Amino acid sequence: MNSLLLTGGRVIDPANHLDAPADLLILDGKIAAVGKIAGTQIPADVERMDVSGLVVCPGLMDLHVHLREPGQSAKETIATGMAAAARGGFTSVVCMPNTTPSIDNAGTVALIRERAVREGGVNVFVTGAITKGIAGEELAPIGGLKRAGVVAITDDGHCIQNNDLMRRACEYAKMFDLPVMDHCQDYSLVTDGVMHEGYWSTALGLRGWPSAGEEMIVARNILLAELTGAKIHCQHLSAAGSVQLLRDAKKRGVSISGEACPHHFTLTDAAIAGGEKFWPADGKGIFGFKSPTQPFPEWPSYDTNFKMNPPLRSARDREAILEGLADGTIEILCSDHAPHCDYEKEVEFDYAPFGITGLEVELALSLMQLVHSGRISLAEMIAKYTVNPARLLNLKKGTLTVGADADVTVFAPDREWSFDKRTTASKSLNNPFYGWPLKGQAVATIVGGKKAWFEQMVPAHV
Ligand SMILES: [Zn+2]
Fold first, then answer.
1. Sorting pLDDT into bands at 50, 70 and 90, what band is 96?
2. How far is the CA of 338 from the centre of ligand 1 (A)?
3. What distance in angstroms lies between residue 416's CA and the mean position of ligand 1's atoms?
4. What is the pLDDT of residue 296?
């Protein structure tokens, strides 16, 4: 019998309100027991892992990942994206449909699901496009996508501007019990903005992407959720106004939810003016600790690794996202892992594509900004990466309940480390956090009872 026993860890399972020292037994890919486990339950040939001093929690899920396959495998493949997820402590990822071709038909859904299973590693859940070719004009076959196994629909990377079309999409989605995830961007307000519209966009001479460009669509989505009863989920929230809209709507019981990405609540738009400006302007106290050995990282102005969509916003917006996470307005954490090739990013700021990788650093950044800073508990943070996304997507995941799939993450919450370009598992290097003093790191990623990744597998630094 395939079995694994994790001993001496601090087991945190928010779905079962468990946070206590406990052992965890896995038998044949399922959680078999949690707590003090009787010797008679444990097979003689069990593999033991001593996890004392570490946190053991349900496998983390990232519901906003771009795996880039099919069609853009120079940036990332399903295999390398899965490897980056496992390295970061993630047992499940949800991939976005803006591939080439886009995931707007059952065939592409099947292709990705089959390839992910063949590669093995972490669980890959697929989202389907809302409109054909993500063009925002004609609905994709939503029923067919559901039958093919998508867990949600989204035009991520794009946003449907026609409110009537979005309404019809919501009505279909409700019929098929699928959440609608939306990248909130009003094109007429944003036009060709490349960074947050504010002091720094003026100072740097870059075109602005105003907060209202996001808030407008969050407000639209709230109205459409009320009108249709569909579950609408607002992706990668960046603006203070969006958080307030969501907070008010949720108080009224509207079926609306939101997610936040660590870069939006770690950095601000001052980062685009360079490390020299960021640290005095907004970076003070960002770590909650100062490494005795490592100086603050440096980077030049106009560094395209700080260009993402939606953009990094003001210190006030950053604070509002943190408050929204702390009071439960924003229930879900994710990375918006968006790999791009060096040659695409190494151009003028205006011309670089939006997006950064995130799977390997998001756990550390979330721990630092939310838990180590004292804003929320470890259990609350874990819920935002496990049971909350699983509930939104109707997945039987995100818990250590006996009988559940043995997807388990083991991490060291207080370990200090830094992210090294040479060790990333992703195919792309577009990340602003190399060399930053980070705190908290995954140690083992167990998927269906098997180790998808564990620490000893890291190659020694070259
Ligand atoms: Zn997006």
1. very high
2. 9
3. 30
4. 83
**Token pair of 116, please?**
């992910």
Known catalytic residue at 104? no
Q: Which residue in 186, 336, 405, 407 is the catalytic one?
A: 336
Closest among 165, 141, 91 to 444, alpha carbons compared: 91
Instruction: Look up residue 120 and give its amino acid.
Output: G
209 beta partners: 196
Q: Which of 169, 171, 160, 151 lies closest to 96 in space, CA to CA?
A: 151
pLDDT reported for residue 180 = 98
Asked if 414 and 407 count as a contact pair (C-beta separation under 8 A), the reply is: no
- Tell me what the mean pLDDT of segment 286-296 comes to: 68
Q: Is the pLDDT of residue 292 over 90?
A: no
Instruction: Reply yes or no: is the peptide bond before residue 437 cis, omega within 30 of 0.
Output: no
* 292 vs 300: CA distance, rounded Å: 24
Within 350-418, residue ranges assigned H as helices are: 362-366, 378-385, 387-392
Average pLDDT over residues 313-324: 98
At residue 284, the pLDDT reads: 83
Cis omega before residue 14 (within 30°)? no
Distance of alpha carbon 306 from alpha carbon 13, whole angstroms: 34
d(CA 156, ligand 1 centre) in Å: 5
Residue 73 Cα distances to 63, 68, 126, 400, angstroms: 20, 6, 17, 34
How far, in Å, is the centroid of ligand 1 from the Cα of 461? 34
Query: How many whole angstroms from 208 Cα to the centroid of ligand 1?
Result: 17
